[in-house]
Amino acid sequence: MSKFWSERLQATEPYIPGEQPNNTNVIKLNTNENPYPPSPKALKAIQEATDETLRLYPPPTVNELRETIAKYHGVHPDQVFIGNGSDEVLAFSFMAFFNPGEPILFPDITYSFYPVYAKLFNIDYKRVPVRSDFTLPVEEFFQSEGGVIFPNPNAPTGLTLSLIEVESIVNQNPDQVVIIDEAYIDFGGQSAVQLVNQYENLLVIQTLSKSRSLAGMRVGFAIGDHQLIEGLNRIKNSFNSYTLDRLAIAAAKAAFDDEEYFQDVRGQIIHTREQTSKRLHTLGFEVIDSKANFLFVRHPHVDAEDLYLQLKEQNIFVRYFNKPRIQEYLRISIGTADEMEQFIIALEPVLQEVKK
Ligand SMILES: Cc1ncc(COP(=O)(O)O)c(C=O)c1O
Fold first, then answer.
1. What whole-number distance in Å separates Cα of residue 191 and Cα of residue 181?
2. For residue 340, what pLDDT band results from cuts at 50, 70 and 90?
3. Which reaction is recorded as catalysed by this protein (predicted)?
């Protein structure tokens, strides 16, 4: 703590990102990245965009990429906002749509950036407890005072609400903004994007970090009513007009243009997730039904933190959250089929060693 820190900074408890080890000789299953490279077309687009035009600012309205995303999702370009990763889009949304003194609702077990943004922007919030099986009690999100936000699929559980359940929450909060964080939607859930023309209070946020293998380029976007999008643009232009660089714009556009590669990669991850889930189940783990690119698991006879540490010693990184209600669980991102095979092979002797 420094005396020079503002009161706001002193009151802030920053988000702690997952470890990014320097060593490349690790099996990295801890930050829900995509184990496959970006589309070759995206890599080529980055190379082609690496030219003398980098001396110029990027287009502040990101029109071309907005048109690409709008066409892909069947909406008008004025219904699309693009930011530097969906984290930035989320942060702008907290600033644009939520108010101090009007508590917003999110689940108690969820993406841990939400309370960080709420505190940073002085927005009150209530955590809605998920049930003991981690499912969301949908009705508890009705009639919020200040708005609602949750990921679908949820993180770190991977559990998914149906479109009808999502719609009921949107419908029951007509005067508040409901944000659906669809970071993992491409791995099996039903997207709420198809509802945006029906509900002026619905904002859907997605990212290219997961299903399109572009976490390193930082591109996320929101789709919603044009007035919500205008609100986000006003926040952005009060903060930094050029949040996306030229290379990120080129990569993102090319990634959307390569549908075949996208379908192939996401299909492989879904397949590997199901295979891994079965293997873990056979090893005695309880595996939550995930529609994301990770599994949330617990072993009744093994301490989760011990297991996390033992795996780390073998250069296998998974995510352990030392937090109430989930200290017995590990979150395991889905790697390639080969990485998951190595993970399972490494797991067997470790399980023997750390059994309680
Ligand atoms: C639920 C959820 N939302 C948003 C993000 C942020 O993704 P990005 O900023 O890379 O788009 C993540 C990243 O792990 C996440 O788990």
1. 10
2. very high
3. L-histidinol phosphate + 2-oxoglutarate = 3-(imidazol-4-yl)-2-oxopropyl phosphate + L-glutamate
pLDDT, tens digit, for every residue of 194-210? 999 999 999 999 999 99
Q: How many CA atoms lie less than 13 Å away from 74 in the CB half-sphere? A: 7
Contact yes or no for 199/55 (Cβ under 8 A): no
Which atom of ligand 1 is nearest to 86's Cα? Answer: 11
Tell me what pLDDT residue 338 has. Answer: 96
Centre of ligand 1 from the C-alpha of residue 301, in Å: 31
Per-residue pLDDT at 356: 58
Neighbours of 253 (CB within 10 A): 20
The packing angle between helices 246-257 and 40-49, to 10°, is: 150
- Ligand 1 atom closest to 90 (CA): 4
Q: Residue 355 — pLDDT band, cuts 50, 70, 90?
A: low
81: left (phi over 0), alpha (psi -120 to 50) or beta: beta
Residue 209: CB within 6 Å of ligand 1? yes
Atom of ligand 1 nearest to the CA of 210: 10
Tell which CATH classification among 3.40.640.10, 3.40.50.1370, 3.90.180.10, 3.90.550.10 matches the domain 40-257. Answer: 3.40.640.10
Beta-ladder partners of 203: 179, 224
Query: Domain locations in the chain?
Result: 7-37+260-354, 40-257
- Pocket flag, ligand 1, residue 333 (CB < 6 Å): no
CA of 207 to the centre of ligand 1 (A): 7
Tokens matching residue 246: 């030229």
Please count the CA atoms within 13 angstroms of the CA of 193 that sit on its side-chain side: 22
Spatial separation of the C-alpha atoms in residues 282 and 3, rounded to whole Å: 55
DSSP single-letter state for residue 105: E
- For the Cβ of 117 lying below 6 angstroms from any atom of ligand 1, the answer is no
Residue 243 CB less than 6 A away from ligand 1: no
pLDDT tens profile 62-73: 999 999 999 999
Correct CATH for 7-37+260-354 of 3.90.1150.10, 1.10.530.10, 3.40.50.300, 3.90.550.10: 3.90.1150.10
Q: Using alpha carbons only, what angle is made at residue 250 by residues 248 and 251, rounded to the nearest 5 degrees?
A: 65
